[in-house]
Design goal:
A: mainly alpha, B: 391 residues, mainly alpha, Arc Repressor Mutant, subunit A, 3 strands, elongated, RNA binding (chain B)
Amino acid sequence: MTTFIQGTCLLMCPEKERWIREKEGLLHKFEIDETTKGAKLPKADPAKTIKCFSRSAAGSNMTDMKLLRPASVLLSTIRYLFSKIATRTDVDWIIIYDFIFDRLRSVRQDAAIQRIDALMNIQLLEPVVRFLVYSAQRFEKCAVLTEWIWRNDCRLCERSISEFNTIINEQHLAECLTRLLVLYDESDDERNSLELDRDMERLTLNDNRAEMEALYILLYMGNMEALTRTLRLPHDLRISPNIQLSIKISFAWYLKNYVRVCSLIPQLPPLLICAAMTGIQKLRRTALKIKITTTFTTFPEMYYTHQCLHSFLPQILL
Amino acid sequence: MTKKDYRAHHKKHLVRCVVNLLSLRHDHVSISQIGSETAITKAMEHLSAPLDDLVLYHLKAIAAMNKNDPLSMYNYQSSAVQSLTKILQMQKEENWMLPVMNTMCLELRLLAVCVENTRTSKNMKPGEILEKCADCLMGCFRVCACDNRSSEDDTKRWGMLTLVNQLLKIYFRINKLHLCRPLIRAIESSPYKALFTLAQKITYKFFVGRKAMFDSDYKTADEHLTYTFEHCHKRSSKNKRLILTYLVPVKMLLGYMPKHSLLEKYNLMEFGELMEAVKRGNLRNLEKVMEKHESFFIGAGIYLIVEKLKIIAYRNLFKKVYLVLNIHQIPIQDLLSALEMQGIDDVDMDEVECIVANLIYEGKIKGYISHQHKKLVISKQNPFPRLSTIP
């Protein structure tokens, strides 16, 4: 095996990057020192500045230890983002989303370069998945609006997409979630060769895993491959109430029983409702198609309001 | 025997000898000295490139076998198959080595399965070896598939189907069904499609049928699996039973119920109970049977197909309600009562309407729902068409 790189940067942002961004005026408004707010080139607040995501390119050394943050710092970075930034009400959610999305991406990148071990990586990816699911829901109304505007004026729609791109959000979610599932499967395998002191860790891991597995079932509601995986989950996971309920919902959708799907969704905890609602457009379309050809009625309207979604912060993500 | 016949016969015999000498299941592997260092050095003195590599890896595989080390045995066999691939690539206009390839590739896959089953090391992911094995077989497959300049007698394309079958077995085992499609396409477009041996065709159609089943293409699944069942050797009842495990639920979805005698003959009584429940439209019992035989259905990979039978059960139940009432405007409430009579208590009017809407949408009931009057209005003619006649 090759040697592992262990980052040595103990701040959320390496000093060098902070310095450059300060000089070039590239600081985000969440990162500046409040006392220098009005200045031409505001100063960075080291406690608030967070490493940006940047692509690996020729000439840039991605493996410089001084620029990489170890796992514990990455974890506290995530915590900071969710408790101090996500909860802000003074700016539009889109600005918060862009900031957090980018900084989480750099967290994932740091973790990938250092090949952080499976258990730690799981702890990092879980909150990222939660954030992406939550955001998709928080933009839901915006997305509906886009669809409507698109028919009338394409230019307006373009602006909306540049603000929140559902597809990119979905792609990142799918990427993180599949990575997580692979990590779970691998850690499953090590189950037999388990030391005692790791039992506690395992217990909380399983708890979160049930949530993530349920999330996966709901995001891929009625999908054959997802259902096949679910049926083969270890027994102790399968009996978790969230997974049981999610399986019921997925099976109901598998048989296109939209009434049952809609009546079961409200029984889920908030985050899982968010996950279930990402596919709701498709469900509405299909249900409407079936109804129009056979009968017609109004269809139940269900989603969280923005205020309601906001009040869930930050507990829903942590 | 004419001279020509004799020659052909002699050639066949020689190829058989080569196959045996390179097989890990032939008697020669039990000779203890054969994997020893001295034997290997001696053998190498008498062989020239490119055959030397092939034999070297074969002997090393035997040595690993004697040490009871399946992983390195697999690795040597994999190297052997790779050098065989190179040899095949170099041999233009000849295909006499295909039997060797078939045997060695089969043994490679069997070894990979064996390694997976005895997996002990922690840093090996499940399915990893099988995936590597698939890569190795793909190397052979490419050489065979690209050999389109040789004449029909000498082309290596005759080797494609055995390789595809090996690969399909692996992909089904590691649950990577999306990888099957290009393989199936390659065979379907092959000019020799109908000319492969029956045994190969049966294996191939078995997997294509199962793939179609997972893609919810039940007509295609029925076609392929029926062929497989009818042509499978009558004495291999184990295989016949396996085919029926998939064919029976597919047939049931298409509206053909199996005979009890058939299920009894092949010891598939799980389906008997299932069929009774579906026929009677007894949703409660259907759920009970599914719960009772859950591990069987999941293990066979047909749980999701069996779940779809619920739709047929609903259709049968609603048809019974229609036959009892003998009217063409059936109150939704009566359909709900029929479900409640079976002890299903978590369903309401909206859900029944939804189930009926789905049945109408799929063409299983001819009619429409009057939401205002809470009634299902059905066609005067053939309101519940036979399932087998629905396109």
